[in-house]
Amino acid sequence: MIINVAFKFSANQFLVLAQMGTESVDHVVIAFPPPISNTKDRRKDILCEQNLDEIARITKSGGRVTIRTDNDDYFNEKTDHLMETSAFDKDQPVDLPKSRFQKVWEKAGRTIKTATFIKK
């Protein structure tokens, strides 16, 4: 049983997600992903369309996906995209421990946005 998986954002993320079993994950937490604004690098985004399909596949029915970021544009784009999929509904944010990045950004005065979605 896998308890927690962390990996750097690269082409390898596709391989990791593809190897995970269908409906095998209770909660996917995507904390402070690097926003990708360059069109040619969009495929490297953890929340690109291909990865969203894989995240939907590996998340158990009733499981959750939580996104946490300090980037307004990225947050709005990705939460809108998740709401457009047929796999997820918006849910109440889940209380999670603060990451090192969250502590740094809060200390710098940035506002942290969190959204949680539940798989249908």
Word description of this protein:
- The protein is of the alpha+beta class.
- It has one domain: Vaccinia Virus protein VP39 (Rossmann fold, 3-Layer(aba) Sandwich).
- It has four helices and four strands; from the N terminus they run H-E-H-E-H-E-H-E.
- The chain has a four-stranded mixed β-sheet with strand order 1-2-4-3.
- Strand 1, helix 2 and strand 2 form a beta-alpha-beta unit.
- Helix 1 runs parallel beside helix 2.
- The radius of gyration is 14 Å and the shape is globular.
List keywords for this structure.
single chain; 120 residues; alpha+beta; Rossmann fold
Short recap of the structure:
This protein has four helices and four strands, in the order αβαβαβαβ.
Class per helix and strand makeup: alpha+beta
Strand order of the largest sheet: 1-2-4-3
Q: Count of DSSP E strands?
A: 4
The CATH class turns out to be Alpha Beta
Order of helices and strands: HEHEHEHE
Which percent range fits the helix content?
25-40%
Biggest beta-sheet profile: 4 strands, mixed
Report the span from N to C terminus: 23 Å
Provide the domain count: 1
Task: Tell the overall outline.
Answer: globular
Number of helical segments? 4
Any low-confidence stretches, pLDDT <50, length ≥5? none
Radius of gyration, CA atoms, in whole angstroms: 14 Å
Q: Name the CATH superfamily assignment.
A: Vaccinia Virus protein VP39
Compile the SSE list and pairings.
Layout: H1 12-19, E1 25-31, H2 49-58, E2 59-69, H3 72-84, E3 88-91, H4 100-107, E4 113-119
Parallel strand pairs: 1-2
Antiparallel strand pairs: 2-4, 3-4
Helix pairs in contact: 1-2
